Amino acid sequence: MQATIQLVRDPGSHERSAIAASLIEFNASRIGRPTEDKLLVLTVTEPETGNIIGGLWGSTIHDHLYVDLLVVPEALRHGGIGRRLMALAEQEAIDRGCRGAWLTTHSFQARGFYERLGYEAFGIMDDFPPGHSFIFLRKRFETPGDLAS
């Protein structure tokens, strides 16, 4: 088999789908089809306008919650909204059968916040962006079976 390599300057969903298709088939041959990647979204709205001013955007797949975005407006920080968003997302994930959660943050963002919620760092990429770190965090959920042992 021969192939050529090209730089695609303006890629779209077609290119991503075509590239991903082979990987999806390979993975399925090893682990079976994953459970459906199901969105998990919570919004924080301004009562007067109904405008979305923050929230949590994530998904559940492979029995884990992935938190992609967590945003609490600066004026509302330290009032428990972030903690409530995470608690609601984690409970929904548990209700969906998840065993744990993972997310990423930067050293200038919210590492301490997540660690106070029981998350632990399992990977750190230093100097990304320069002068800062990119941190991978995870949390295992306690299940009734865990409590019995």
From TrEMBL:
Residues annotated as domain N-acetyltransferase: 1-142
Signal peptide stretch: none
Gene3D superfamilies: 3.40.630.30
Name by which UniProt lists this protein: GNAT superfamily N-acetyltransferase
Source taxonomy: Bacteria, Pseudomonadati, Pseudomonadota, Alphaproteobacteria, Hyphomicrobiales
